[in-house]
Amino acid sequence: MKAKFSPLQLLDFKLLESHYDFLIPENDKLEPRELFASYHVEIDFDMGPLDENGELQLITTIEVNLGGESIEAGYKIMVEGGGTFKLDESEEIQEGLKNNLLKFSTLNMMINNLRNIIYQITNLGPMGGYLLPPIDITQLLSDKAEEQETE
Fold first, then answer.
1. Cα(63)–Cα(96) distance, rounded to whole angstroms?
2. DSSP readout, 84-137?
3. Which of the two residues, 97 and 119, has the higher pLDDT score?
4. Do the domain assignments include residue 150?
5. pTM reported for the whole predicted model
6. 147 in any annotated domain
7. What InterPro entries does this protein's entry cite (predicted)?
8. Is residue 116 part of a domain?
9. What angle is formed at CA 45 by the lines to CA 100 and CA 119, rounded to 5 degrees?
10. pLDDT tens column, 54-72
11. Which H/E stretch holds residue 77?
12. Domain at 109, CATH number
């Protein structure tokens, strides 16, 4: 099947910051998958407005095993990336689809790019690659909206 391109394009993606550390586990029989599943993950993002050229900038930060009640052994990771997106409005886009593209799709693309970077950073590490679990984007957007209302 021929792919139809989305009116939303990722123009640019940059890794702005990354930190990686490894804490040696005391238990050498520790299963990495079980440990990875216990990691606390924080995601934050800052989305700029759509400018007159139809471009939007989004900065996204992911922290793995850096917060929460306790830091687990294994990987401690922080990555931050910035992306520039363009919405091609040469054809008419329904408001619901436009909102979905500008919020849901942009954040999803940024998290996926950062997920790949996290995997690449850890792939040669002592416990193998850490693959960030699937993220509920709808909940992230809802939490962010709620956070902005209280500020």
1. 31
2. EEEE--SS---HHHHHIIIIIIHHHHHHHHHHHHHHHHHHTSTT----PPP--H
3. 119
4. no
5. 0.92
6. no
7. SecB-like_sf
8. yes
9. 95
10. 899 999 999 999 977 778 8
11. strand 74-87
12. 3.10.420.10
